[in-house]
Specification:
By secondary structure, the protein is mainly beta. It has a domain at about 60-245: Beta Barrel (Cathepsin D, subunit A, domain 1). Helix content is about 5%, strand content about 35%. The chain contains five helices and 26 strands. It has helices spanning about 35-40, 115-120, 190, 365-370, 395, and strands spanning about 10, 15, 60-65, 80-85, 90-100, 105-110, 125, 130-140, 140-155, 160-170, 185, 195-200, 220, 225-230, 250-255, 265-270, 285-290, 295-300, 305-310, 315-320, 340-350, 355-360, 380, 390, 400-405, 415-419. The strands form four sheets. A six-stranded mixed β-barrel has the order 4-5-12-6-10-9. Strands 22-21-18-19-24 form a five-stranded mixed beta sheet. The chain has a two-stranded antiparallel sheet with strand order 1-2. Strand 4 (about 80-85) and strand 5 form a beta hairpin. The longest helix is centred in the first third of the chain and has 7 residues, at about 35-40. The two termini are about 30 Å apart. Mean pLDDT is about 90; it is low at about 5-40. This is DUF3443 domain-containing protein. InterPro entries: DUF3443 (IPR021847).
């Protein structure tokens, strides 16, 4: 079993968020913790979490979410299956174990997850006449590098035609520009999944930021020579949800509740659309207006201003708290308090709505000691950026979490988060 913490890459206006790895092996044998151990470390005294159950998968606007050991025995990684086709053809492939990520925008598939016939049939995007377009998606300790291509993408029964996607790792290592720095994360072994499906509130992965070549993460390539280039929103890697013909104004992530000692797996539902069908009515207790990236900037943690990030792509809660003991070298980046803890967090967006969230924290070493559970609602680690609280996958268990797409550029609603 491995613990993988997802770090963030912040790029001026918008964040392109992908997964980096801090890996710790944990021993096998046995199931969860014993009842006596639970009493000793305080797990049994933690406040009860939310208890909402996912709606059934099967409707045209639903897709199954799976949290289990996945491809590489990594905990708290939600995945879905995605159908990818060469545009306008029946040359298609279903790619499984694609990470569901509400903290990024657009589809990114590792090149080796595609069969050769489909991989070669996806048209490469060209810019500046004849250069092919590539992207360096940066994050805390590395990057993904690959070409931008066009594909028809289907999730369940919802289709986004001719969608710009990134194919990770399909370009020669010699083509990586010097301005793209860090550790390359361009294989399944690096990412622990076959790809990343970004369904956050933004329609594109960097918007107007990439209209300036000095701040763009896109490159025009001739052979192995790649230089920064302008990328209009028409060619940027794009969120598929706003491209659907209907049920395209948002998504609902629904995961079942799990025990405070964890579960071997969890089966949830991704629902497309908000207030467009009988199965996606907005029933949240609070709705929060967010910034353009879907973050709540008016929040408060430990008496200090904070920004809340709602991110299924992070496998734990991540925040700075010097009173929580760090795990050390066995589970680097995670907290290992001697007894279970709860940290309150007040989330607030740009409007008046606010809510208190209890973040339960159990020692990462205790949680993974059994070696058989892969879904946890109380895993937490050190902050990713000063003043930010990352409400990662633990937050989503037992909740319906709504992400309203930012459609303001076309006269539609502003982005929001609700739960």
């Amino acid at each position: 079993m491995q613990i993988t913490t997802k770090l963030k890459g912040w790029m001026q206006v918008a964040a392109v968020v992908v997964m980096a790895s801090l890996v710790a092996a944990c021993g096998g044998g046995g199931g969860g913790d014993s009842g006596s151990n639970n009493a000793g470390n305080g797990i049994s005294s933690l406040p009860a979490g939310p208890t909402q159950q996912p709606v059934a998968v099967g409707a045209a606007n639903t897709v199954a979410i799976t949290v289990d050991k996945g491809l590489k025995n990594v905990i708290n990684i939600p995945t879905v299956s995605v159908q990818i086709c060469a545009p306008g053809t029946a040359n298609c492939q279903i790619v499984d174990h694609v990470q569901l990520d509400t903290g990024s925008y657009g589809l990114r598939i590792v090149s080796t997850a595609l069969n050769a016939t489909l991989g070669s049939a996806l048209p490469v995007t060209t810019v500046n006449g004849s250069q092919h377009l590539a992207e360096c998606a940066s994050f805390a300790d590395g990057f993904t590098w690959g070409s931008v291509r066009t594909a028809d993408v289907t999730l369940g029964q919802k289709r986004a035609a001719s969608l710009p996607v990134q194919i990770i790792g399909d370009l020669a290592a010699a083509s990586v520009p010097a301005s793209c720095t860090g550790v390359p994360e361009n294989t399944v072994d690096d990412l622990r999944v076959n790809g990343i499906l970004g369904i956050g509130v933004m329609q594109n992965d960097c918007g107007t930021t990439c209209l300036d070549p000095t701040s763009s993460n896109y490159y025009g390539c001739t052979g192995n020579t790649c230089t920064p280039t302008i990328a209009t929103t028409a060619v940027q890697v794009a969120n598929p949800v706003p491209k659907f013909s209907g049920d395209n104004n948002g998504v609902i992530v629904q995961l079942p509740p799990v025990s405070n000692t964890g579960a071997a797996s969890a089966q949830g539902t991704l629902v497309f659309g908000i207030n467009t069908q009988s199965n996606n009515t907005l029933t949240a207790a609070q709705t929060f207006l967010s910034d353009s990236a879907g973050d709540l900037t008016g929040s408060t943690f430990n008496g200090n201003p904070a920004t809340a990030l709602f991110d299924t792509g992070s496998n734990g809660y991540f925040f700075d708290d010097s009173t929580l003991a760090a795990c050390g070298s066995n589970e680097p980046g995670f907290y290992c308090p001697p007894s279970a803890q709860t940290r309150p967090f007040t989330v607030k967006g740009t409007g008046s709505a606010s809510a208190n969230v209890n973040m339960n924290v159990v020692s990462a070493a205790t949680l993974v000691s059994g070696g058989t559970n892969f879904a946890f609602n109380d895993l937490a680690g050190e902050g990713i950026r000063a003043g930010w609280v990352d409400l990662g996958l633990p937050f989503f268990f037992g909740r319906y979490v709504y992400f309203g797409m930012d459609l303001s550029s076309t006269g539609g609603p502003a982005p929001f988060i609700a739960f």
